[in-house]
Amino acid sequence: MNSLHIIAKAPTSASIAELSAIVDEGDVLIFIEDGIYFARTEFSPSSAPRFNHLECYFLEEDLAARGIDILEGMQTVDTRGFVALSARLPRSVSWY
Amino acid sequence: MTSLADTPKAPGALRYTLLINAAPQSSQASKSALRFAESLLQMGHNIERLFFYGDGVLNASSLTVMPQDEINIPAAWHALIEANGLSSVVCVSSAIRRGIVDTAEAQRHELYATSCFTSSEIGGLGQLIEALSNSDRMLSFG
Amino acid sequence: MDNDISNKQTISLIARRAPYGSDGARQTLDIAFAAAVFEKSLNYIFIGDGVFQLVAGQSPKVISSKPLGAALETLELYGISEVFVHRDSLLSRGLTESQLVCRAFLIEDCALKQLIAESTYVINL
């Protein structure tokens, strides 16, 4: 059964290594708070395919707050959508 | 503040335990948790328990004063807990280290003040484990 | 105390912070002990800098901290035997199994993903 990973901190080499070890095929990722900066480093056309082939969402409120826009095709949700994702997946793993 | 959970529970309603692990003043996490909790209730889900741990216990401080143009997060948690009759537990070992005490802890440690909102109970980690037994989901914010 | 279903719940703890510099390692340990008292099925997973928690020979008295390694040595006494160390994290930090304070299963990414997939709850402080 797949997990929802809630990523709340900007990427570091350590967090990318740990996420890579734990995130499984079919898992869903939501980037919140400073986690939305993953949009800039892990989801550009030249990014290594670590996470960008998975089902990923960025929290709209946190994107707007930081003035970060995302590329076409990347998905966003608001907090209600975040709740819905947490209900859909049987467990969550928080990363902070 | 009125209850967010007056509506009948939807068939898909789930029971959540939320673990809050960061101080309101030093990270965005408790604001995220608060908005998540509000949305959760609005959508008809249940909160089995809020559990404040580590620096998160500072979210239960009744002695927090914020500038007028900033939200008082502990007061907002208190209002949410009261309005919705939520179970809220503050980890005792984290709390007394950080000066969060209720009447009983103040007496036990011979302190002259209390600092914990009465809407939260000071308790042990067993209450986190117990809440998990009765929940469908656990999310942590820190 | 509760029904059979809750007794079948498995909690996985992910320990990924180095000891002493912050409180996360100790907080995770305290949850492990509480879960053990309630006889919860538990996986204790060390990954990233968390593997430093298991290094033998910690003497933190001089920095006014309680020894974490010594506490981790007692896990088995609490019935916590499902202790896992992410092999790559250990090796990439120049550590070997013989330097650890307690017995642990060295695991690769795929076994780690499997543990998470079989957990009811994951606590990653």
Q: Return the average pLDDT of chain C rounded to an integer.
A: 94
Whole-angstrom Rg of chain B:
15 Å
Number of structural domains of chain C: 1
The counted number of beta strands of chain C is 5
What is the oligomeric state here? heterotrimer
On the 0 to 100 scale, the average pLDDT of chain B is 95
Helix content of chain B: 25-40%
CATH top level assignment of chain C: Alpha Beta
- In CATH, the homologous superfamily of chain B goes by the name DsrEFH-like
Q: Figure out the total of helices of chain C.
A: 5
CATH homologous superfamily of chain C? Answer: DsrEFH-like
Shape type of chain B: globular
Largest pleated sheet of chain C: 5 strands, parallel
User: What fraction of the residues of chain B are assigned to beta strands by DSSP?
Assistant: 15-25%
Over all CA atoms, what is the radius of gyration of chain C? 14 Å
- The H/E string of chain B reads EHEHEHHEHE
- The topology string of helices and strands of chain C comes to HEHEHEHEHE
Write the CATH fold name of chain C.
Hypothetical Protein Ychn, Chain: A
Structural class estimated from helices and strands of chain B: alpha/beta
Would you give an account of this structure?
The complex is a heterotrimer of chains A (96), B (142) and C (125). With 96 residues, chain A is of the alpha/beta class. Chain A is 32% helix and 23% strand. Chain A is built from 4 helices and 5 strands. Chain A has a 5-stranded parallel beta sheet with strand order 4-3-2-1-5. In chain A, strand 3 (55-59), helix 3 and strand 4 (75-77) form a beta-alpha-beta unit. The two termini of chain A are 23 Å apart. The model of chain B has no long low-confidence stretch (mean pLDDT 95). With 142 residues, chain B is of the alpha/beta class. A 5-stranded parallel beta sheet of chain B has the order 4-3-2-1-5, with helices on both faces. In chain B, helix 1 (29-42) runs parallel beside helix 2 (73-84). The two termini of chain C are 27 Å apart. Chain C is globular. Classes of the chains: A alpha/beta (96), B alpha/beta (142), C alpha/beta (125). Chains in contact: A-B, A-C, B-C. The B-C interface holds B 19, 21, 53-55, 93-94, 124-126, 128-130, 132-134, 138, 140, 142 and C 1-2, 6, 9, 11, 23-24, 27, 30-31, 33-35, 37-38, 40, 120-121, 123-125.
